[in-house]
Design a protein that fits this description.
Length: 185
């Protein structure tokens, strides 16, 4: 998959800050705990960050799903493949949360190519849905309860995907451009 790289974002070794975004990318010390961004800040030449987040932006990955006619058709399966057996849940589309969301946000629901996402941190996958890696935190220990710091780039992408008009995307199955939006269900 060419063009679907990742962004290396330096992080505070104590998991309290990302050196990311226009206001923070050039900081040398964590503004929360005053810890150096670098393993050895006295080294001349290229410095090594204490901790790195590899962020795989979800926007180009979702757009990429519409670049294959087969995958693009599968992305709208939920609009036509609803379960016909009362009381049986074959897919999330048959669930109460999906139906309630569609009722509350009909403008989102009317475009079947809009994407509904779920979060998984442990690999649990009851509906055999597709997985997409978005965050890889490099370091000797997991962030634990401070995971929210690392979610900031992902949340930023989600805000862009939720906001109208969405992100312009080409659906090769139909040959049309559309404004893709996404949300977390």
């Amino acid at each position: 998959m060419s063009g679907l790289g990742y962004e290396s974002i330096h992080a505070c070794v104590n998991d309290c800050f990302l050196f990311w975004g226009e206001d923070h990318k050039d900081k040398q010390l964590c503004p929360v705990c005053n810890t150096s961004r670098w393993k050895d800040s006295n080294t001349s030449g290229k410095k090594v960050p204490n901790k790195v987040l590899c962020y795989f932006s979800i926007i180009p990955r979702l757009q990429h799903l519409y670049k294959s006619s087969h995958t693009a058709k599968e992305m709208t399966w939920h609009a036509t493949g609803k379960c016909m057996e009362p009381g049986k849940m074959q897919h999330l589309v048959d669930g109460r949360a999906w139906k309630n969301f569609d009722t509350k946000y009909p403008d989102f629901a009317k475009e079947p190519r809009n994407v509904r996402l779920g979060l998984a941190a442990d690999g649990f996958n009851p509906f055999k849905s597709s997985f997409m890696l978005t965050l890889l935190i490099l370091g000797p220990k997991s962030p634990g309860k401070d995971i929210d710091v690392y979610l900031r780039p992902f949340i930023n992408d989600l805000k862009n995907l939720w906001a109208k008009p969405g992100v312009e995307t080409i659906d090769v199955a139909t040959g049309q451009k559309f404004n893709m939006r996404a949300m977390v269900l």
